[in-house]
Amino acid sequence: MKSALEVSASERSRGIRAVCLDIDDTLLDSRGSARRAFASLTGNDAAWPVWRRITDEYNARMMAGEIDFETMCRSRTRDFFAAFGERLSEDEVLAREQRRMVALRDSWELFEDVTGCLEWLRASGLRVAAITNAPGGYQRHKLAVTGLAATFDVTVISGECGVAKPSSGIFAAACDALGLSAAEVAHVGNNLEIDANGAACAGMHGIWLDRESGGSTSSAAPVDGVSVITSLYELPEVLVCDLPFGGADDGLPARQVSMAGSA
C-alpha cells in the first residue's frame, strides 16, 4: 500500500467513498462492559486497575502471536487472583472465566451515537467496513449479538487476516476488499496510535474518536492530516466539510448532514 506521501492528487480528488470503523470502544462500549463483568466476578470493581494492567500485558502477547485468545483469558484470570494471594486450580480458573464471559456478553452495548451515525453513512451512499484487532470467532459472535453483523460491506479481523493494526497490511486488506484506493477511504477509531495514525500512515484518512476528550494518557500526537472528533455525532461534518467527500450528496451543506444534537 502507498504511504500518505505517495498518494497522487488525482487519487485524492476522487473523494471519500467508504468509511472503516473500529469496533471496541468505538462502536461498542467494550471497556464499560468489561468493567461490569469484572465487578460481577469479584463483587466490586475496586481492583479494576490491576485487572486492566494484567489485561494489557497479556493482550500485547496475544497480538504478537505468542498466545491464543483462550490462553490469554485463562492466564489473566489466574494471575489476577494470584496477585491477591489466591491460587486457583485450572478447573477453578476455567469456571471463573466462563462466569465472567457470560456476564460480559450479557452487558455488551453500543454507544448512543452509533445507530444514527451508521444510518447517516448508508444514506449518504458511503460503503461501510469494520477493521478490528481481535480473534475472528469471538469478534464475529460479538457483532452478531450486538446486531452489527449485517452492517458492514467488509469486515477485516486481525485474527483472520494474520496482521493487526497499526500495520499497513490490515488497512490494505480492507481497501482491497472494498475495491478502493486508500485515499478514497477514511478510518475512524478510538485509539490514536493504532487507528488514526496507523490509517494515515497507510495512506487513508485517519480520524481519531477521542471519546475521553483529551483524557488519554498516551504521549502520541496525531500525525499530519488526522482529524479529531469527540463523538460520532461529529463524523458527518468532518467527512463533508474537512475531507474530499465522495458520497451521494457531495454538495449538501454541513447543517443538513450533521448529526449533532440528534440524540
UniProtKB/TrEMBL annotation:
Protein name, as recorded: Putative hydrolase of the HAD superfamily
Lineage, broadest ranks: Bacteria, Bacillati, Actinomycetota, Actinomycetes, Actinopolysporales
Gene Ontology biological-process annotations: small molecule metabolic process
Cofactor: Mg(2+)
Molecular function per GO: hydrolase activity
NCBIfam families reported for this sequence: HAD-SF-IA-v1
Highest taxon of the lineage: Bacteria
SUPFAM superfamilies listed in its UniProt record: HAD-like (SSF56784)
Sorted UniProt keywords: Hydrolase, Magnesium
Pfam families tied to this protein: Hydrolase
Coiled-coil ranges from the UniProt annotation: none
